[in-house]
Amino acid sequence: MNALRQEIRGRVRWDEPLALHTSWRVGGPAALFFEPADPADLAAFLADLPATTPVFWLGLGSNLLVRDGGIDGVVIATQRGLVALDVLAPGRIRAQAGVPCAKLARLCEREGWAGGAFFAGIPGTLGGALAMNAGAFGGETWRQVARVEVMDRQGRTRWRVAAEYEVGYRQVHPPVDGEAFVAAEWHFDIDSVGEAGRARIRELLARRAATQPLGQPSCGSVFRNPPGDHAARLIEAAGLKGECIGDAQVSPKHANFIVNRGQARAADIEALIERVQERVLASQGVALIPEVRIVGRVS
Predict the structure, then answer these.
(1) What is the pLDDT, as a whole number, of residue 1?
(2) What is the pLDDT of residues 151-182, one digit of tens each?
(3) Known catalytic residue: 293?
(4) Pick the catalytic residue: 106, 170, 200, 265?
(5) Active site residue: 62, 192, 218, 221, which one?
(6) Which of 95, 123, 168, 176 could tie 99 with a disulfide, CB 3.0–4.6 Å?
(7) 221 assigned to active site
(8) Domain residue spans in the chain?
(9) CATH code for 231-295?
Protein backbone atom coordinates (compact mmCIF):
# COMPACT_ATOMS: atom_id res chain seq x y z
CA MET A 1 0.00 0.00 0.00
CA ASN A 2 3.01 2.30 0.26
CA ALA A 3 3.96 2.08 -3.46
CA LEU A 4 0.96 3.33 -5.42
CA ARG A 5 1.48 3.89 -9.16
CA GLN A 6 1.69 7.41 -10.52
CA GLU A 7 -1.17 6.59 -12.92
CA ILE A 8 -3.68 6.65 -10.06
CA ARG A 9 -5.82 9.77 -10.53
CA GLY A 10 -8.17 9.47 -7.57
CA ARG A 11 -7.68 10.72 -4.03
CA VAL A 12 -5.65 8.63 -1.61
CA ARG A 13 -5.54 9.34 2.13
CA TRP A 14 -3.99 7.46 5.02
CA ASP A 15 -5.64 7.13 8.46
CA GLU A 16 -8.84 8.77 7.22
CA PRO A 17 -11.49 9.08 10.00
CA LEU A 18 -14.50 7.10 8.82
CA ALA A 19 -16.77 9.10 11.10
CA LEU A 20 -16.58 11.68 8.30
CA HIS A 21 -18.02 9.17 5.84
CA THR A 22 -20.74 7.28 7.74
CA SER A 23 -24.32 8.38 8.35
CA TRP A 24 -24.03 7.57 12.08
CA ARG A 25 -21.03 9.94 12.28
CA VAL A 26 -18.97 7.35 14.16
CA GLY A 27 -16.08 5.08 13.26
CA GLY A 28 -12.31 4.89 13.56
CA PRO A 29 -9.80 5.45 10.74
CA ALA A 30 -9.28 3.60 7.49
CA ALA A 31 -5.65 2.56 7.10
CA LEU A 32 -5.92 3.72 3.49
CA PHE A 33 -8.88 5.54 1.93
CA PHE A 34 -9.23 5.69 -1.85
CA GLU A 35 -11.73 7.63 -3.97
CA PRO A 36 -11.27 6.55 -7.59
CA ALA A 37 -11.70 9.11 -10.34
CA ASP A 38 -13.64 6.65 -12.51
CA PRO A 39 -13.90 2.88 -13.16
CA ALA A 40 -10.63 2.79 -15.13
CA ASP A 41 -8.82 4.45 -12.24
CA LEU A 42 -10.36 1.92 -9.86
CA ALA A 43 -9.24 -0.97 -12.06
CA ALA A 44 -5.66 0.34 -12.15
CA PHE A 45 -5.64 0.73 -8.37
CA LEU A 46 -6.91 -2.80 -7.76
CA ALA A 47 -4.45 -4.27 -10.25
CA ASP A 48 -1.61 -2.77 -8.18
CA LEU A 49 -3.01 -3.82 -4.81
CA PRO A 50 -1.47 -6.90 -3.15
CA ALA A 51 -3.92 -9.80 -3.12
CA THR A 52 -3.58 -10.11 0.66
CA THR A 53 -4.70 -6.51 1.35
CA PRO A 54 -8.26 -6.41 2.74
CA VAL A 55 -10.67 -4.26 0.72
CA PHE A 56 -13.87 -2.69 2.02
CA TRP A 57 -16.34 -0.93 -0.29
CA LEU A 58 -18.09 2.22 0.93
CA GLY A 59 -20.98 4.19 -0.54
CA LEU A 60 -22.76 6.85 1.48
CA GLY A 61 -21.96 5.07 4.75
CA SER A 62 -25.56 4.22 5.61
CA ASN A 63 -26.57 0.78 6.90
CA LEU A 64 -23.06 0.56 8.32
CA LEU A 65 -21.47 0.66 11.77
CA VAL A 66 -17.68 1.07 11.75
CA ARG A 67 -16.19 0.23 15.13
CA ASP A 68 -14.00 2.75 16.93
CA GLY A 69 -10.76 0.93 16.06
CA GLY A 70 -11.33 1.55 12.36
CA ILE A 71 -10.70 -0.68 9.34
CA ASP A 72 -7.39 -2.26 8.36
CA GLY A 73 -6.50 -2.43 4.70
CA VAL A 74 -8.17 -0.28 2.04
CA VAL A 75 -11.55 1.44 2.04
CA ILE A 76 -12.73 2.24 -1.49
CA ALA A 77 -15.34 5.00 -1.62
CA THR A 78 -17.54 5.02 -4.72
CA GLN A 79 -19.71 8.11 -4.28
CA ARG A 80 -17.46 10.50 -6.26
CA GLY A 81 -16.05 8.55 -9.20
CA LEU A 82 -18.72 5.95 -9.98
CA VAL A 83 -21.71 8.22 -10.47
CA ALA A 84 -22.79 7.91 -14.11
CA LEU A 85 -26.54 7.53 -14.63
CA ASP A 86 -27.66 7.05 -18.23
CA VAL A 87 -30.96 6.37 -19.97
CA LEU A 88 -30.30 3.63 -22.55
CA ALA A 89 -33.86 3.40 -23.87
CA PRO A 90 -37.36 4.15 -22.57
CA GLY A 91 -37.62 2.37 -19.22
CA ARG A 92 -34.04 1.11 -19.34
CA ILE A 93 -31.21 2.76 -17.39
CA ARG A 94 -27.59 2.06 -16.54
CA ALA A 95 -26.25 3.39 -13.25
CA GLN A 96 -22.87 3.10 -11.56
CA ALA A 97 -22.45 1.93 -7.99
CA GLY A 98 -21.89 5.35 -6.43
CA VAL A 99 -25.21 6.82 -7.62
CA PRO A 100 -27.50 7.66 -4.67
CA CYS A 101 -30.69 5.62 -4.66
CA ALA A 102 -32.72 8.83 -4.35
CA LYS A 103 -31.27 10.07 -7.66
CA LEU A 104 -32.60 6.97 -9.43
CA ALA A 105 -36.01 7.57 -7.85
CA ARG A 106 -36.01 11.15 -9.15
CA LEU A 107 -35.13 9.94 -12.64
CA CYS A 108 -38.07 7.53 -12.61
CA GLU A 109 -40.28 10.36 -11.38
CA ARG A 110 -39.11 12.71 -14.13
CA GLU A 111 -39.58 10.12 -16.87
CA GLY A 112 -42.87 8.88 -15.48
CA TRP A 113 -41.73 5.25 -15.10
CA ALA A 114 -43.33 2.87 -12.59
CA GLY A 115 -41.41 0.68 -10.16
CA GLY A 116 -38.63 2.99 -8.99
CA ALA A 117 -40.37 5.24 -6.47
CA PHE A 118 -39.35 3.11 -3.49
CA PHE A 119 -35.67 4.01 -4.07
CA ALA A 120 -36.52 7.40 -2.53
CA GLY A 121 -36.71 5.64 0.84
CA ILE A 122 -33.23 4.07 0.68
CA PRO A 123 -30.55 6.39 2.13
CA GLY A 124 -27.53 4.79 0.42
CA THR A 125 -25.98 4.21 -3.01
CA LEU A 126 -27.01 1.70 -5.65
CA GLY A 127 -23.88 -0.38 -5.02
CA GLY A 128 -24.86 -0.93 -1.42
CA ALA A 129 -28.48 -1.51 -2.40
CA LEU A 130 -27.37 -4.22 -4.83
CA ALA A 131 -25.13 -5.87 -2.24
CA MET A 132 -27.94 -6.32 0.31
CA ASN A 133 -31.09 -6.18 -1.84
CA ALA A 134 -32.13 -3.01 -0.02
CA GLY A 135 -35.79 -2.11 0.02
CA ALA A 136 -38.35 0.39 1.24
CA PHE A 137 -42.12 0.85 1.09
CA GLY A 138 -42.62 -2.69 -0.24
CA GLY A 139 -40.09 -2.41 -3.08
CA GLU A 140 -36.77 -4.26 -3.42
CA THR A 141 -33.66 -3.46 -5.43
CA TRP A 142 -33.28 -6.66 -7.45
CA ARG A 143 -36.85 -6.98 -8.73
CA GLN A 144 -36.07 -5.04 -11.91
CA VAL A 145 -32.34 -5.63 -12.29
CA ALA A 146 -31.48 -6.93 -15.77
CA ARG A 147 -27.73 -7.38 -15.33
CA VAL A 148 -24.82 -6.10 -13.24
CA GLU A 149 -21.25 -5.12 -13.98
CA VAL A 150 -18.73 -6.47 -11.47
CA MET A 151 -15.02 -5.96 -10.89
CA ASP A 152 -12.68 -8.51 -9.32
CA ARG A 153 -9.61 -7.96 -7.17
CA GLN A 154 -7.38 -7.79 -10.25
CA GLY A 155 -9.41 -4.91 -11.71
CA ARG A 156 -11.07 -7.05 -14.39
CA THR A 157 -14.72 -6.36 -15.21
CA ARG A 158 -17.54 -8.47 -16.62
CA TRP A 159 -21.31 -8.37 -16.89
CA ARG A 160 -23.48 -10.94 -15.13
CA VAL A 161 -27.22 -11.44 -15.60
CA ALA A 162 -29.46 -11.15 -12.56
CA ALA A 163 -30.35 -14.86 -12.69
CA GLU A 164 -26.76 -15.73 -11.66
CA TYR A 165 -27.44 -14.36 -8.15
CA GLU A 166 -29.41 -15.90 -5.31
CA VAL A 167 -31.46 -13.02 -3.93
CA GLY A 168 -33.54 -12.99 -0.75
CA TYR A 169 -34.79 -10.59 1.87
CA ARG A 170 -31.87 -8.22 2.56
CA GLN A 171 -29.34 -10.73 1.27
CA VAL A 172 -27.60 -11.48 -2.02
CA HIS A 173 -25.38 -14.49 -2.73
CA PRO A 174 -23.02 -13.98 -5.69
CA PRO A 175 -21.88 -16.74 -8.01
CA VAL A 176 -18.22 -15.84 -7.33
CA ASP A 177 -16.73 -14.34 -4.16
CA GLY A 178 -14.53 -11.27 -4.37
CA GLU A 179 -16.42 -9.41 -7.10
CA ALA A 180 -17.76 -5.93 -6.37
CA PHE A 181 -20.67 -4.19 -8.10
CA VAL A 182 -19.57 -1.25 -10.23
CA ALA A 183 -22.75 -0.72 -12.29
CA ALA A 184 -26.13 -2.23 -13.15
CA GLU A 185 -28.92 -2.01 -15.69
CA TRP A 186 -32.58 -1.78 -14.66
CA HIS A 187 -35.85 -2.09 -16.57
CA PHE A 188 -38.88 -0.04 -15.49
CA ASP A 189 -42.49 0.03 -16.64
CA ILE A 190 -42.91 2.87 -19.17
CA ASP A 191 -46.72 2.67 -19.18
CA SER A 192 -47.04 4.71 -16.00
CA VAL A 193 -48.76 8.08 -16.01
CA GLY A 194 -46.15 10.75 -15.21
CA GLU A 195 -48.13 12.68 -12.62
CA ALA A 196 -49.12 9.49 -10.83
CA GLY A 197 -45.44 8.57 -10.52
CA ARG A 198 -44.55 11.99 -9.16
CA ALA A 199 -47.43 11.83 -6.68
CA ARG A 200 -46.16 8.44 -5.48
CA ILE A 201 -42.67 9.85 -4.86
CA ARG A 202 -44.12 12.77 -2.89
CA GLU A 203 -46.29 10.43 -0.86
CA LEU A 204 -43.38 8.14 0.05
CA LEU A 205 -41.08 11.02 0.97
CA ALA A 206 -43.78 12.59 3.14
CA ARG A 207 -44.36 9.26 4.90
CA ARG A 208 -40.63 8.85 5.48
CA ALA A 209 -40.31 12.37 6.94
CA ALA A 210 -43.31 11.82 9.20
CA THR A 211 -42.19 8.47 10.62
CA GLN A 212 -38.38 8.49 10.63
CA PRO A 213 -35.84 10.62 12.56
CA LEU A 214 -34.30 12.18 9.47
CA GLY A 215 -32.82 15.13 11.34
CA GLN A 216 -30.46 12.98 13.45
CA PRO A 217 -27.51 10.77 12.46
CA SER A 218 -28.66 7.17 11.99
CA CYS A 219 -28.00 4.23 9.68
CA GLY A 220 -31.59 3.71 8.57
CA SER A 221 -33.35 0.58 9.82
CA VAL A 222 -31.17 -1.38 12.25
CA PHE A 223 -32.95 -4.76 12.20
CA ARG A 224 -34.60 -6.90 9.56
CA ASN A 225 -38.34 -7.34 9.88
CA PRO A 226 -39.15 -10.88 11.10
CA PRO A 227 -41.56 -12.86 8.91
CA GLY A 228 -45.08 -11.53 9.39
CA ASP A 229 -44.06 -8.80 11.83
CA HIS A 230 -42.13 -5.54 12.15
CA ALA A 231 -38.97 -5.01 14.15
CA ALA A 232 -40.16 -1.55 15.23
CA ARG A 233 -43.35 -3.00 16.76
CA LEU A 234 -41.40 -5.63 18.71
CA ILE A 235 -38.87 -3.09 20.00
CA GLU A 236 -41.61 -0.72 21.09
CA ALA A 237 -43.54 -3.57 22.76
CA ALA A 238 -40.38 -4.36 24.75
CA GLY A 239 -40.45 -0.81 26.15
CA LEU A 240 -37.25 0.25 24.43
CA LYS A 241 -38.27 3.47 22.69
CA GLY A 242 -35.97 6.20 24.01
CA GLU A 243 -33.53 3.67 25.56
CA CYS A 244 -29.99 5.08 25.73
CA ILE A 245 -26.40 3.98 26.13
CA GLY A 246 -24.23 7.06 26.18
CA ASP A 247 -25.41 9.30 23.35
CA ALA A 248 -26.82 6.36 21.37
CA GLN A 249 -30.62 6.23 21.61
CA VAL A 250 -33.44 4.08 20.30
CA SER A 251 -35.38 6.74 18.44
CA PRO A 252 -38.58 7.91 20.17
CA LYS A 253 -39.95 8.51 16.64
CA HIS A 254 -39.23 5.10 15.10
CA ALA A 255 -38.12 2.17 17.27
CA ASN A 256 -36.12 0.46 14.50
CA PHE A 257 -33.79 3.46 14.29
CA ILE A 258 -30.88 4.12 16.64
CA VAL A 259 -29.74 7.75 16.55
CA ASN A 260 -26.54 9.49 17.56
CA ARG A 261 -27.56 12.40 19.79
CA GLY A 262 -24.18 14.03 19.29
CA GLN A 263 -21.32 12.29 21.05
CA ALA A 264 -22.06 8.59 20.66
CA ARG A 265 -19.22 6.16 20.04
CA ALA A 266 -19.56 3.12 17.84
CA ALA A 267 -19.20 1.02 20.99
CA ASP A 268 -22.29 2.71 22.47
CA ILE A 269 -24.34 1.95 19.37
CA GLU A 270 -23.21 -1.67 19.22
CA ALA A 271 -23.98 -2.15 22.90
CA LEU A 272 -27.45 -0.69 22.38
CA ILE A 273 -28.05 -3.03 19.42
CA GLU A 274 -27.17 -5.98 21.66
CA ARG A 275 -29.41 -4.71 24.46
CA VAL A 276 -32.35 -4.42 22.08
CA GLN A 277 -31.78 -7.98 20.84
CA GLU A 278 -31.60 -9.34 24.38
CA ARG A 279 -34.71 -7.53 25.60
CA VAL A 280 -36.84 -8.37 22.57
CA LEU A 281 -35.83 -12.02 22.78
CA ALA A 282 -36.62 -12.14 26.51
CA SER A 283 -39.96 -10.32 26.31
CA GLN A 284 -41.23 -11.15 22.81
CA GLY A 285 -39.49 -14.45 22.08
CA VAL A 286 -38.11 -13.16 18.76
CA ALA A 287 -34.42 -13.08 17.80
CA LEU A 288 -33.90 -9.87 15.84
CA ILE A 289 -31.31 -10.04 13.06
CA PRO A 290 -29.37 -6.84 12.36
CA GLU A 291 -29.81 -5.35 8.93
CA VAL A 292 -26.90 -2.99 9.59
CA ARG A 293 -23.42 -4.26 8.77
CA ILE A 294 -20.94 -4.04 11.68
CA VAL A 295 -17.27 -3.92 10.66
CA GLY A 296 -13.84 -2.93 11.93
CA ARG A 297 -11.75 -3.32 15.06
CA VAL A 298 -12.80 -2.66 18.62
CA SER A 299 -10.55 0.11 19.97
Answers:
(1) 47
(2) 999 999 999 999 999 999 999 999 999 999 99
(3) no
(4) 170
(5) 221
(6) 95
(7) yes
(8) 11-77, 85-211, 231-295
(9) 3.90.78.10
